[in-house]
Amino acid sequence: MKTYISASILGADLLNLAKECDRLKESNVDMLHFDVMDGQFVNNISFGLPVLEKLTKYTDIFKDVHLMISDPLKYINDFVKAGSDMITFHVESDSDPDETISAIKNAGIKAGISVKPGTPVEEIYPYLDRVDMVLIMTVEPGFGGQGFIPETAEKIKTLKKYITENNICIDIQVDGGINNKTIDIVKTAGANVIVSGSYLFNAQSMSEAVSTLK
Ligand code: DX5
Ligand code: ZN
Q: What are the tens digits of pLDDT across the range 66-109?
């Protein structure tokens, strides 16, 4: 399966987002990962709709939106209008997963569903036939620059085995603590959409960092 790199702009120079978008394009990054945090679902508040709208006006790069918010269903239409190409929400949120997936798919974009490190991956099995991607969090959601949690590799393997055996064609995304050392673990386990923030944006050469991950 092809490996895609999604750059988490939480790790970018937020004062110079336009330049950072240029850097993504020049470095062959496949997607822009946009982390939305509401201070309720996670212990942090990041950025939201007005910033996404600006990014959409500026760059055509694929927008991979990660909603770490308590009630994603309430905001799906707004995030679609703001330019999301894919929206991923958490199975642990308060919204009904089936309704949330329907809202995303009815808007004509891709849908992803995510599990935190402490949630068994089996909890998303009932939704696998309706989503395009599963995001297995490899850190506790909320902050960039954290260390990879090694135990999450087992969940990736379990999911990969399950989708292979059941002929389910979806992407497996990982997010948190991915760098030149942890990439092999997640790829060997079966992940093919790789989110990276601090490793990519702090690299001397983003292109080389992207090649290393790919
Ligand atoms: C964490 C976010 C991640 C984060 C990844 O809650 O979902 O996308 O920005 O950052 P790094 O790659 O620095 O761990
Ligand atoms: Zn994220």
A: 999 999 999 999 999 999 999 999 999 999 999 999 999 999 99
What ligand is nearest to the CA atom of residue 197? Answer: 1
Residue whose CA lies nearest to ligand 1 atom number 4:
144
Residue 115 forms beta bridges with which residues?
136
Please compute the mean of the pLDDT values over residues 187-206 and round it to a whole number. Answer: 98
**CB-based contacts of 214, cutoff 8 Å, min separation 6:** 3, 5
Q: Which of 22, 30, 35, 60 is catalytic?
A: 35
Q: Is 132 a catalytic residue?
A: no
The C-alpha R_g of the chain, in whole angstroms, comes to: 16
Q: How confident is the model at residue 210 (pLDDT cuts 50, 70, 90)?
A: very high
pTM: 0.98
Residue for token digits 């569903």? 113
Ligand 1 neighbours by CB, cut-off 6 Å? 8, 10-11, 33, 35, 66, 139, 141-146, 175-178, 195-199
The dihedral over CA atoms of 125, 126, 131, 135, expressed in degrees to the nearest 10, equals -40
d(CA 65, CA 164): 26
On the 0-12 / 13-18 / 19+ scale of CB atoms within 10 A, 150 is exposed
Q: Which residue has 């209008």 as its token pair?
A: 81
